Known about the structure:
- Helix content is 59%, strand content 8%.
- By secondary structure, the chain is α/β, with parallel strands linked by helices.
Amino acid sequence: MSDISNTINVLLVDDQALLRQALANLLAQSPDLTIVGTASDGHEAIKQVAFCRPDVVILDIEMPNLDGLSATQLITQRFPTTKVIMLSSHDNEAYLMNAIKAGAKAYLLKDTLSDELTNTIRNVHKGYGQFGPGILEKMVAGIATSDTPSPEIGEEASPSVAPVEEDISAASQEQPLPLSASSSQTTPLRATLTAALSRFEPEELLTLIDQWRDQPETATIVRPLIEEALVETPNNLAALYLYGALARQVWNRPQIALKSLQTGIQAGIRQEMPCEALLLFYQEAVHSEPTVAFRWLTQIDSPWNTQKHLPFLIREAATQLGTASSHYKSLLLLYRMRSLKAMLRRQPTIHPSFSPSAAREQTSTIIRAT
């Protein structure tokens, strides 16, 4: 056993519960590392640091409420003995330089191997700085081109999206209803739209999008009608989906599309809609922002955040993000560990024929079959 005085206390901060658990499972394999707490955003992280006084904080750069850069700056200012390791899916110099400015002692990409992560924790605890493979070269390049604008600390690290209501206000001034759109055109469209907005039928909505995508003029005419509906009922799921899908496929407004679809899936979760229906928002958003869309499925209140749906999440991570992505690796590890734990509960004494490779093969078979 390791000497408790040499144990490094670690705080894990990520807005995705599944990834926090996967990281905790990885670090638990190292006897000299102890997880003293977890947090899901920057504000909670600061409270946890004050309470737990960890030696090292592993901090996601993209989080709601208070992003990782701002949280790092506050943590390093208020708790100078606590070291911060920044985890990010961004390998460009803008994020790297701002992480260093905020006080991070290490900057690693989310696909970092487990051995590299644990070694980084130990080195940072000793006072060394560390960067993932290829990161140092980008830092040097960033210094050489320091006049290039970069996002400031406190600026949202994920794609900037304004509230849907603000987007509607701005967008409605860009493309006014064409003069050729007479009442004889809008009346049937309004009737069709009113019927579609009175319910949430995925097949019906997909059919409308297919029709309006092939008729850009009709899509332009229907735009203010959907905006009017959203002003009256901001959480109408059908209106949010139609607006998001048309913004991406016809109006070429990807950020408006992303915000509308994100609002839709979050509203659907609050309304306890079936997973199959909510997938409509994800499947539309994944065409333009697969990483962002996938994060919606793994947020803490997501209906997919269960053992039953983990095989689906693993397949989606492999398809949309690749088997080399940190999301895929973390979810697969989490599924295997949960499955192994369930097997041990059913059979407390491990049979002599049991082997880890057999468990992995069984897990792969289950994932393919579900």
